[in-house]
Target: FAD-binding oxidoreductase
Amino acid sequence: MTTKSKTRSWWGWGNVEDAVAGPERAALVGRVAALLPGQDLTDHEPPDPAALDLPPARVRPPTSLAGLCSDDPADRAAHARGKAFRDVVRNLHGDLRHVPDLVVRPASEQDVVDVLDWCGRAGVAVVPYGGGSSVVGGVEPRVTGFAGAVTLDLGRLDRVVEVDATSRAARVRAGVLGPHLEEQLRPSGLTLRHFPQSFEFSTLGGWLATRASGHYATLTTHIDDLVESLRVVSPAGTGESRRLPGSGAGPSPDRLFLGSEGTLGVITEAWMRLRPRPRHRAGASVRFADYPAAVAATGAIAQSGLHPANCRLLDAAEAFLNTGVGVTGGVLVLAFESADHPVDAALARAVELCRDHGGEVADETAGRDGRASGIADEWRSSFLRMPYQRDALARIGMVVETFETACTWDRFEALHAAVTEAAQDAIRRVCGAGVITCRFTHVYPDGPAPYFGVYAAGRWGSTVAQWDEIKAAVSEAIAAHGGTITHHHAVGRDHRPWYDRQRPDPFAAALTAVKATLDPAGILNPGVLLPERPPPAP
Amino acid sequence: MTTKSKTRSWWGWGNVEDAVAGPERAALVGRVAALLPGQDLTDHEPPDPAALDLPPARVRPPTSLAGLCSDDPADRAAHARGKAFRDVVRNLHGDLRHVPDLVVRPASEQDVVDVLDWCGRAGVAVVPYGGGSSVVGGVEPRVTGFAGAVTLDLGRLDRVVEVDATSRAARVRAGVLGPHLEEQLRPSGLTLRHFPQSFEFSTLGGWLATRASGHYATLTTHIDDLVESLRVVSPAGTGESRRLPGSGAGPSPDRLFLGSEGTLGVITEAWMRLRPRPRHRAGASVRFADYPAAVAATGAIAQSGLHPANCRLLDAAEAFLNTGVGVTGGVLVLAFESADHPVDAALARAVELCRDHGGEVADETAGRDGRASGIADEWRSSFLRMPYQRDALARIGMVVETFETACTWDRFEALHAAVTEAAQDAIRRVCGAGVITCRFTHVYPDGPAPYFGVYAAGRWGSTVAQWDEIKAAVSEAIAAHGGTITHHHAVGRDHRPWYDRQRPDPFAAALTAVKATLDPAGILNPGVLLPERPPPAP
Model:
């Protein structure tokens, strides 16, 4: 879990030491070569960030803040963007058009206040930065009307300040990375159990600002529900909500900042709800010969009130690619967990619902200390390697990316068909060959959150444009069929065209008014959620 | 469930025909007389609303809207305020200082738009009105800087427009009363199962605008979680959020309007999440000799992940007054329900947690079609009669009212002690004799929602002032001990002083900005949540 002594990749996912290499790389490239005979699979090394000849920093901090600031080219390059496919490929090409002038690392909340003060006065844009794992352009300083742009890296604000074991909650600074958070909670026997795929490389503040989804397929799917109170520094002042298990006093103050993606303020601290580690587990993988039947079974479980921790329906392509299982319909990976009571009966009932829809149990583990099943284990290992494999494939000119949504059950069949068709059509047009896969990451009584993967043959030098065309096509299909442009990847700069259409007009007006009030100079993450507004003339 | 052919009380709770009378009244008054020898228990009849000599309406609607408007004195009097103790007593005194000039009943959403347009132009305040069951001054047109005030009664917008049985959701107009909503859903086999104490006399729109709490003690405690999308008419325009089971696209647009109490827009319609009626039930009542042990047991259940539908801890006074059970610590009323699977094991585990804390099962019902237990039944009947009994007691000069909050478990003991002491002290000072009771209406892993009742000897003519003094004392104690000023009664006009202190400053600034944008003339429910802002000079 700990990332000590490893080196973060400046251009790609995670740690340099964990990149796909050796036999893993050979096997991966071999599989692609077999599927795409004749495809150019030349490996493209990332450039040396120090040799990129970045433009010099346009702004200088006041002396009082200089100690927090870095203008080191490698540091600036590493903070220039997130970790989407289009980010990684542009990095590989050495194409760093928008680089922060400075990386600023506050050591206290007062430092955050001071940095916002300075930037407000100097007309400098501020990009709040957690782990930098955005896949929607959320941390890329793609701004124009400012004297410069700084990235506010909150990594030093990384402590668990206080644990309330009675209420099972902790006060945590926002810059803490997932593993370090869990490490600090361990002595209390409590855990947040929020495990997005980016867990190792994303922070509490990032999860909160982007409404991240984590471990749980049902109930507490988004981080929103784990928040007891928030502390936020905005250019107009600092505020903290009262620690409350529930309240009905006006619109929720926290919900305005959850999902605000650094545009309204900087989340510096939160009281988070915790739980004990699970002691009871039960899991199963269920095969279906028919995809609609698998979807119906998953819907029945989502509506049963059984509340599985995991309820991940893999379609046939996803199951084959990431677990090696051959199946015509799909595989449902189910898991239940509890710190208090056995969950075997819940699993048995969920399996019964699957059988009612033609499912056949492939493997099952149950009882106390039961671990994930074989297929689930396979899938989990694959899940954690996916971003690294994506990078390896990007280097050989493949187009590999994901996108996700959520919709109501009544619309899923049409949405799935339209998205698949749009993706396949775009892949044919711009790539020639490729596949699209689908899994459910989360399920609700009223609908699933489908997550799609695209693997297509690219042309080195054009893969960003190829992906952008596929992405636009599937985003249109999602919008046309009532899905959200994002269930848990956030809006950033890249989802804006579809977000703008999805967001009700009165709420857009409200958000604009809030932005103008809390960030009057418009310096906070300009272009995210709302159009960039140049700062007022000095 | 149906209220057909009954007459709503203009001055007090519910239906005239259901008021406390005859032997029920004799028994109630007899009990009070026994407890308070020498107390003046003269019964005070409500005045005839037609004889109240209301001031004439100050505004006239445009001809196009005249058909929707009523200036009938009884109608205006009946819409002048909510159903708090202080409302009922002032009605009994014929003290109707703030009466709407007109009651306007839109028959369509376009009517709502037209009324807001007219009122915006004419500088007339608009009070959105559902069932009128506010206990916080939320529907009382206590406004000054306006040409007049109209009450916008949404009662005609009462249809379930569409049911999506696949996703288990329905599109419902906001003005529907609880029983009529359930009546319309019945053919689908689905139910909202949102049963606040006011169920018969409150509407979907009111529940949404005030973040009402309902039937479920855990998980979906507030109506917020049952909302799929909202349709809102604001003076600045109409908007509708996309129907989504979950989303991470920016801050939740719906959460800004949930709890906005009619100050930002009029909720005209919502897609609501439904479920099938429960087929499996299990319940028990558990006695505790020791209150702290009962609280600890309740906390353990709240943190167990068992998710009881009911988990209502009654303290000794509450148990005695409302179920007749004598106990030194308290009684925990537990119930589980499911439409899918048996819940006996969940009940057994919850009971085991109670026994670990010294609880003894008083009665238990389990298995399919198990109904609530004896004490629970007793309590439920009493619960539904409470507001009617409150009215009967108000008529004989008693001070009878409730208040509620939520806090984290670590703070509950101190909050409970401080609130109890503040109430007892204030009762002694202003009333002489009285009791305070406490129950938990909802419980969360990180804290309970305690609900307090006050029964005190009043002096006819002074009981509102007496209550106001008690209320101020307990509100200060709640604030000092980190509770919310309201868990589910909303803010209205009466909770403003404490809400203003509880609300983080940046959120106050944000809310003010949103109000100015969506309601530029400041006509919507002025004085609720935010200070009344007079309309701009014409």
